[in-house]
Design goal:
By secondary structure, the protein is an alpha/beta fold. It is globular and about 30 Å long. Helix content is 19%, strand content 22%. It has one domain: Nucleotidyltransferase, domain 5 (2-Layer Sandwich), CATH 3.30.420.130.
């Protein structure tokens, strides 16, 4: 399965997860088979909450699911509408979360569990 993971660095499988999807500096896209990942810079990482469009940055990327530490409700809904599941991260790095995905131990995140905003 091919996963997109918001990360703080562009260090591939060793990259640490970023705390929130929209403000992540990078997106690391990798297969759970351990093949070489692709890293994409998020040009929306400095936008205010709700004003960014990070999903647009991923339009031309192929992935089956998203693994996140945190994500807004609208982003979860948009990914679900596109047929992609969102999973809650269970470990600090890309590699460890891909292992958990492959093992089937990640919990799916629902839109109700997504962040509704900050204020």
């Amino acid at each position: 399965m091919r996963a997109c993971i918001p990360t703080s660095t562009d260090t591939g499988l060793d990259a640490p997860l970023h705390g929130h999807f929209g403000s992540a500096p990078f997106f690391t896209i990798a297969d759970d088979d351990g093949s070489d990942p692709v890293t994409i810079a998020n040009q929306n990482d400095h936008s205010s909450h709700g004003a960014c469009t990070p999903l647009g940055r991923l339009d031309d990327q192929v992935f089956d699911c998203m693994i996140v530490a945190g994500m807004g409700k609208r982003a979860v809904e948009a990914l679900n509408r596109s047929g992609r599941k969102v999973f809650r991260a269970a470990a600090p790095t890309v590699a460890e979360n891909l292992d958990a995905l492959k093992a089937g131990t990640l919990q799916e995140m629902t839109a109700q569990e997504g962040c509704a905003g900050h204020g």
